[in-house]
UniProtKB/TrEMBL annotation:
Entry's transmembrane regions: 31-54, 61-83, 89-107, 141-158, 188-214, 267-284
Principal localisation: membrane
Listed InterPro entries: ABC_transp_permease
Topological type in the membrane: Multi-pass membrane protein
Subcellular location: Cell membrane
Listed name of the protein: ABC transporter permease
The keyword Transmembrane belongs to this UniProt entry's keyword annotation: yes
Length: 306
């Protein structure tokens, strides 16, 4: 039972940064923009949040600084892709490389000393419940906030006029522009939100999940978040389920190594990435489902007429 609880709670925690980053990218892609720079934005969020904690700033302020660092990086992408209409694939890849370099520069003097991690919440009575307490009521605030954001984004996209406008923009920006909506401005807002979420994901990695600084500590989680959006066929609930799936694979490979399974450690470490490839291959076989939810104008540049 203790092993089950450890795997369950570890899965929820490991999935949290993926939930933040993938939900942010989901909103971006729903607007018709493709930002491949999640890895770079996460690294910048991680570096600046860690720097803020080391500087003695309160934990909530440090997390906010990490989120703003991700948003600032996404603004650079927005200028390139939305104002100058550069290729979105190239701009996103450039941002991923840029973020990696900036984070390495910021973190060059951090060393490997750990910091005091974001503490789990102590919920009276509930935290002390047998079995249910450690499984549901002993996480930190950012884990619970991820669920709040999931509910808020789902409601926004499918229950509000603004969400409908955003989704329409992802299908036909020309139509949205023709009826008077500021397509470029709204896409900028979506891109900034995606960067903010990626920054939160990175901040969670450096101040909660792994409370120490390691260069390139995201280890491909930004790319997995991109794959999650496709796996989810651009639907929030599937993003959540997919994040738990990949989080579970991460924890299983750690538990497998701890239990001494007779498998090469390199194979166990590759499990989350192998799962990503397998799932994407299976999803790509169902072209009808992909086409049904795929934003028609994704990654296509748009310049307002006149």
């Amino acid at each position: 039972m203790d092993l089950f609880i450890a795997i369950f709670t570890g899965t929820i925690i490991a999935a949290t940064p993926l939930i933040y980053a993938a939900l942010g990218e989901l909103v971006v892609e729903k607007s018709g923009v493709l930002n491949l720079g999640i890895e770079g934005m996460m690294l910048m969020g991680a570096a600046f949040a860690f720097w803020a904690v080391m500087a003695g700033l309160p934990m909530p302020v440090a997390i906010l600084i990490g989120a703003l660092a991700g948003a600032a990086a996404s603004l650079l992408f927005g200028v390139l892709a939305l104002t100058f209409l550069t290729n979105q694939y190239a701009a996103g890849l450039a941002l991923a490389i840029f973020g990696s370099g900036v984070s390495a520069f910021v973190g060059r003097n951090f060393g490997s000393a750990p910091i005091e991690a974001l503490k789990p919440l102590d919920i009276p009575v509930l935290s002390q419940l047998p079995m249910a307490g450690p499984m549901f009521f002993r996480f930190d605030a950012m884990v619970y906030f991820a669920f709040v954001l999931f509910a808020a984004i789902s409601w926004f996209l499918y229950r509000t006029k603004a969400g409908l406008v955003l989704r329409t923009m992802g299908e036909s920006p020309e139509t949205s522009h023709a009826i008077g909506y500021p397509v470029v401005r709204i896409r900028y807002m979506a891109v900034l939100f995606g960067g903010l979420m990626a920054g939160l994901a990175g901040a969670y990695l450096s101040v909660a999940y792994t409370p120490l600084w390691v260069e390139n500590m995201t280890s491909g989680k930004g790319w997995i978040s991109l794959a999650l959006v496709v796996f989810a066929t651009w639907r929030p609930l599937r993003v959540l389920l997919g994040a738990w799936l990949f989080g579970g694979m991460t924890i299983l490979q750690l538990q497998g190594q701890a239990l001494g399974l007779a498998l090469p450690s390199e194979l166990l470490s590759a499990l989350p990435y192998l799962a990503t490839i397998v799932v994407l291959v299976l999803i790509s076989r169902n072209r009808q489902m992909l086409a049904l939810h795929f934003p028609a104008s994704l990654a296509k540049p748009f310049r307002p007429a006149g």
